[in-house]
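Folding problem:
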Amino acid sequence: MTNGAYEIWEGMYLVGGPGVTHAEDATSFLVDCGEDLVMIDAGAGPSAPRIEQTIRDLGYNPDDIAAIILTHCHIDHIGGAPHFVDSFGCSLVIHELDAEAVETGDPERTAARLYGTVFPPTPVDVRLKGDEEVLSFGTREIRCIHTPGHTPGSLSVCIDHRGKRVLFAQDIHGPFFETFGSDLGAWRKSMRGLLELDADILCEGHLGIFTSKERVRSYIEGYLKE
């Protein structure tokens, strides 16, 4: 454990977000896949060097980051990605429906204008398609599940390891705006799909990490009832 970072489950770490790096950062995570490291989201941008240092403090080498999976195209999740791509040559992975916003630096769809900043147009290496794709890194299989609603290309990431199912479902709570391309009907369907996964641990983008099946289910159902 270092600077507020900690191990969520074996080889999966919280490395960025409020209380770890900066309040504007959505949570970001590091997954030890054996030969490779994978990040899930990369913070808002200015604190990317702090996320990098946190990874080093955990005993890992950022040169081993093979990919960053971006759960959607908003600046608090993608802003640090250019730092890691430029410094370490890792690939960027995002669903195809959010890829254009990243590649053009769209100030509305990335929410950069809301944050009073600019996101530089950044090439995407892997555009995920359809409802689900499974990516293999080192010894792990990582399920990337299309969960539209907050944005058209929102993803949830699911990893099964040693009897636990860990779900990275970043912005369950929204918000939902026309400028984001939000769709409440699609969101409700996505949330019902997440409930069917029956995850043991939920890593949410802003509101915490929930560490039992009961707490995960209660959290998701609470938003569906609102």
Summary: The first strand starts at residue 6 and ends at 9.
